[in-house]
């Protein structure tokens, strides 16, 4: 399976498991050292592409934007582009058709101007208009090399009880892939994205059953959302869990770890995240279902220090990608 890595800058990339990586998507400042090193390992390095969807309804604007991206990729000796547009779009809007056209035209331009280049598009964990992103998913999949499915932030819209839960619940995550495939999108057009971070939720109340009740913070139509919490990288989680009041707990239904702690002001918190156990279960599905590969947001979330415990924890997260 291919491994797709998002890099947000810094020098932690020197400690990545390069034996696995096929693509690095650069979301941070351009780093020529990273580019040269990745190429020496046989890995692609691609741009991040984003543009306001209202601007791309005009075909001339699309052409200008695409030309700019191609020129940038050429000048920086890069290998393609990862289009990351996470904006609201209605199925009946001009933007719906313009977005599909943008992806098709971008793919055609890159493949023509940079032979062997790769054009990919980021999509939500499910095609069911998550966060009001009602895109032409099958058309976009046909128009590019593959979709990167962001199987995280799955609580961005909470329609049930407003309680803390897994960032990427196992069954919900897999249902998302089944939905894409049922739209006649080939599994080989899908790369599974997994989170190397979790959410820290301050509980309004932590029940005896360890249910963490959250304030109602709406998002794009839903009454509750993960905006009630804050994102925490895996490296921080691994340091904090040892001082938690619960230790590592496991939710068998969601197949995800979590723990509880008390802050200096006496507030209870619950932290949900993914670890090697939860990620390996999803990676096994990706392999059995014949997905193109797996990737993560983001490669910098691990502890790449030479501390022996950190080394072991980091290696385990990379190994979890290989079922």
UniProtKB/TrEMBL annotation:
PROSITE patterns, per database record: GH18_1, GH18_2
Record domain GH18: where: 1-323
Recorded superkingdom: Eukaryota
SMART domains xref list: Glyco_18
Cellular component, GO, one term: extracellular space
A GO molecular function held by the record: chitin binding
Pfam families named among the record's database cross-references: Glyco_hydro_18
Subcellular location field: Lysosome
UniProt keyword annotations, A-Z: Glycoprotein, Glycosidase, Hydrolase, Lysosome, Signal
Matches recorded under CDD domains: GH18_chitobiase
GO BP terms in the entry: chitin catabolic process; oligosaccharide catabolic process
Family from the record: Belongs to the glycosyl hydrolase 18 family.
PANTHER family membership: DI-N-ACETYLCHITOBIASE
Protein name per Swiss-Prot or TrEMBL: Chitobiase
Originating organism: Pelodiscus sinensis
GN (gene name): CTBS
């Amino acid at each position: 399976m291919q491994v797709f890595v998002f890099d947000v800058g810094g020098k932690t990339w020197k400690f990545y498991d390069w034996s696995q990586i096929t693509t690095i998507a650069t979301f941070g400042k351009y780093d020529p050292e990273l580019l040269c090193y990745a190429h020496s390992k046989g890995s692609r390095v691609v741009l991040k592409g984003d543009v306001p969807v209202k601007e791309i309804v005009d075909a001339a604007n699309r052409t200008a934007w695409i030309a700019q991206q191609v020129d940038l990729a050429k000048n920086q000796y890069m290998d393609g582009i990862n289009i990351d547009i996470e904006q609201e779009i209605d199925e009946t809007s001009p933007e719906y058709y313009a977005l599909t056209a943008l992806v098709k035209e971008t793919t055609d331009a890159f493949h023509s101007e940079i032979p062997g280049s790769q054009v990919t598009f980021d999509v939500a964990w499910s095609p069911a208009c998550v966060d009001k992103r009602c895109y032409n998913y099958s058309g976009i999949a046909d128009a590019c090399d593959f979709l990167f499915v962001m199987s995280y932030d799955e609580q961005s819209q909470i329609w049930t009880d407003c309680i803390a839960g897994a960032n990427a619940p196992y069954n919900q995550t897999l249902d998302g892939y089944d939905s894409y495939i049922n739209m006649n999108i080939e599994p080989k057009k899908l790369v599974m994205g997994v989170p190397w971070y979790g959410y820290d939720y301050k509980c309004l109340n932590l029940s005896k059953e360890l249910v963490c009740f959250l304030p109602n913070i709406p998002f794009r139509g839903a009454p509750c959302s993960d905006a009630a919490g804050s994102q925490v990288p895996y490296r921080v989680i691994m340091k904090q869990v040892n001082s938690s009041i619960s230790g590592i707990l496991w939710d068998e239904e969601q197949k995800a770890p979590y723990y509880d702690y008390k802050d200096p002001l006496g507030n209870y918190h619950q932290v949900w995240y993914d670890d090697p156990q939860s990620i390996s279960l999803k990676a096994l599905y990706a392999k059995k279902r014949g997905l193109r590969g797996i990737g993560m947001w983001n490669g910098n979330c691990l502890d790449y220090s030479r501390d022996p415990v950190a080394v072991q924890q980091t290696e385990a997260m990379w190994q979890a990608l290989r079922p």
